[in-house]
């Protein structure tokens, strides 16, 4: 629906679809995305000029959206220490333990404008099959003696889009360095060591993200290399960076 509508509307008009639940949700690489009631689910359309900071670094969009989801919660007064984090390239995590949500970005270049469709979904209210944001808030209240209120999916979608607009503006003005300090504050990979390719593969340290949004790893004796997100994925349970 949005794929058809996005070319029909005036450029300055925003467009977002919000679902209470999805029956045919899609993840990266053709994976099925489970979308029960209680999740925040939406697809957002944005336009990015090709000849702009972000237009030259389109892979960064998924990082900005992941950061926006985390910021949507952790920028609320009192909620700063809820342990919500980002995992490269496009996942939302509780600490480095469990996945709470994800981001899927599709782009179409028409003349000198990228039309970007951003699908994002994260678990707000469902304790199963893993954990949800309101569980994290309840856990925090119990441990810290606070009385933070549960959050709604609608509120978090609205906050995510608002934060994302601000992050895009900052990126367009200052480039990657305008947003990376905040991204690194929340990402789960700082100082982590991984095996490349397979369980007996070479050891490498995760360095950060390069100017185009690709992961940088430092393999002993080989220097720093960039890893493309479309060809590789993290297996968090086995601490592997593996080709897909």
TrEMBL record:
<dbReference type="GO" id="GO:0004077">
    <property type="term" value="F:biotin--[biotin carboxyl-carrier protein] ligase activity"/>
</dbReference>
<dbReference type="Pfam" id="PF03099">
    <property type="entry name" value="BPL_LplA_LipB"/>
</dbReference>
<protein>
    <submittedName>
        <fullName>BPL1 ligase</fullName>
    </submittedName>
</protein>
<keyword id="KW-0436">Ligase</keyword>
<feature type="domain" description="BPL/LPL catalytic">
    <location>
        <begin position="1"/>
        <end position="172"/>
    </location>
</feature>
<comment type="similarity">
    <text>Belongs to the biotin--protein ligase family.</text>
</comment>
<dbReference type="GO" id="GO:0005737">
    <property type="term" value="C:cytoplasm"/>
</dbReference>
<dbReference type="InterPro" id="IPR003142">
    <property type="entry name" value="BPL_C"/>
</dbReference>
<dbReference type="InterPro" id="IPR004408">
    <property type="entry name" value="Biotin_CoA_COase_ligase"/>
</dbReference>
<dbReference type="Pfam" id="PF02237">
    <property type="entry name" value="BPL_C"/>
</dbReference>
<dbReference type="InterPro" id="IPR004143">
    <property type="entry name" value="BPL_LPL_catalytic"/>
</dbReference>
<dbReference type="InterPro" id="IPR045864">
    <property type="entry name" value="aa-tRNA-synth_II/BPL/LPL"/>
</dbReference>
């Amino acid at each position: 629906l949005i794929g058809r509508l996005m070319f029909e509307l005036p450029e300055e008009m925003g467009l977002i679809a919000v679902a209470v639940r999805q029956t045919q949700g899609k993840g990266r690489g053709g994976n099925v995305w489970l979308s029960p009631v209680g999740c925040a689910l939406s697809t957002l359309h944005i336009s990015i000029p090709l000849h702009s900071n972000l237009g030259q670094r389109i892979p960064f969009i998924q990082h900005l959206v992941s950061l926006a989801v985390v910021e949507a919660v952790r920028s609320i007064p009192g909620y700063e220490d809820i342990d919500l984090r980002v995992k490269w390239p496009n996942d939302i995590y509780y600490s480095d333990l469990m996945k709470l949500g994800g981001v899927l970005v599709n782009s179409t270049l028409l003349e000198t404008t990228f039309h970007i469709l951003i699908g994002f979904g994260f678990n707000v209210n469902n304790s199963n099959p893993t954990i949800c944001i309101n569980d994290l808030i309840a856990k925090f209240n119990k441990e810290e003696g606070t009385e933070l209120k549960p959050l709604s999916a609608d509120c978090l979608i609205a906050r995510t889009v608002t934060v994302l607009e601000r992050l895009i503006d900052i990126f367009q003005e200052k480039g990657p360095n305008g947003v990376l300090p905040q991204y690194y504050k929340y990402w789960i990979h700082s100082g982590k060591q991984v095996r490349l390719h397979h369980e007996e593969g070479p050891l490498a340290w995760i360095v950060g993200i390069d100017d185009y949004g690709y992961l940088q790893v430092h393999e002993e004796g080989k220097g720093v290399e960039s890893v493309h997100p479309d060809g590789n994925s993290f297996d968090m349970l086995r601490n592997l960076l593996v080709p897909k």
